[in-house]
Each structure stands twice: as structure tokens, then as C-alpha cells.
């Protein structure tokens, strides 16, 4: 079942152990940039122990998702120009 991460975590009583979060909503599917995984798969990657709040649980899940969540790996449009490379200032149209 696809759910918003907040919806998936709202039924858990906090503070909660990671195992409790997995028990309550571990089967909820997170849609990633390239693929999907469950809340349980994401939480199993971390060693957070006890989660004190829904906000902390959300951060833990989002910090623990696989690399399928990053989209284009190693890409950034904010990288500085390379030394000795031609560089053009952007023109506003």
C-alpha cells in the first residue's frame, strides 16, 4: 500500500523502538525516484534504537532509504565550473 510517509507513521505511539515502527507500518511502500521499497526495509538499515517522535521516525526513514531515492547518481547542477574550462554566464530571457 502506497502512503504518504506521515500517514504511515502517524499510528505509532512514540517513543517507539524501530522494531515497533516496523511492526506497525513496515509493509507500507515508499515510491522512490527509481523503484520502491518498504518502510521496514529502510528502517532495517539504521541502528537508531528508539525513535522519540513521528518527526524523528520520518527523518530516520528518509535518511535510510536506498540509493533508488536519489535519482541521477553523482549529478548536481550546482557544481562549480572546472578549472580552465570555458564558462558562460547564464542569460536571463
Q: Tell me about the largest β-sheet.
A: 2 strands, antiparallel
Silhouette: elongated
Number of strands: 4
Strand order of the main beta sheet, please?
A: 1-4
Tell me the β content. 5-15%
Structural class: alpha+beta
H/E order of the elements? Answer: HEHEEHEH
In helices, the fraction of residues equals 25-40%
Measured between the Cα atoms of the first and last residue, the distance is: 44 Å
Task: Point out poorly predicted stretches.
Answer: none
Rg computed from alpha carbons, rounded to a whole number of angstroms: 18 Å
- Please, how many helices? 4
Overall mean pLDDT: 79
Keywords:
single chain; 93 residues; alpha+beta; two-stranded antiparallel sheet; 4 helices
Amino acid at each position: 500500500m502506497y502512503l504518504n510517509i506521515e500517514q504511515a507513521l502517524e499510528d505509532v505511539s512514540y517513543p517507539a523502538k524501530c522494531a515497533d515502527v516496523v511492526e506497525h507500518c513496515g509493509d507500507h511502500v515508499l515510491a522512490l525516484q527509481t523503484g520502491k521499497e518498504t518502510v521496514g526495509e529502510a528502517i532495517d538499515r539504521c541502528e537508531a534504537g528508539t525513535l522519540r517522535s513521528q518527526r524523528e521516525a520520518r527523518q530516520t526513514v528518509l535518511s535510510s532509504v536506498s540509493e533508488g531515492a536519489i535519482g541521477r547518481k553523482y549529478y548536481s547542477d550546482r557544481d562549480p565550473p572546472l578549472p580552465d574550462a570555458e564558462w558562460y554566464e547564464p542569460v536571463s530571457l
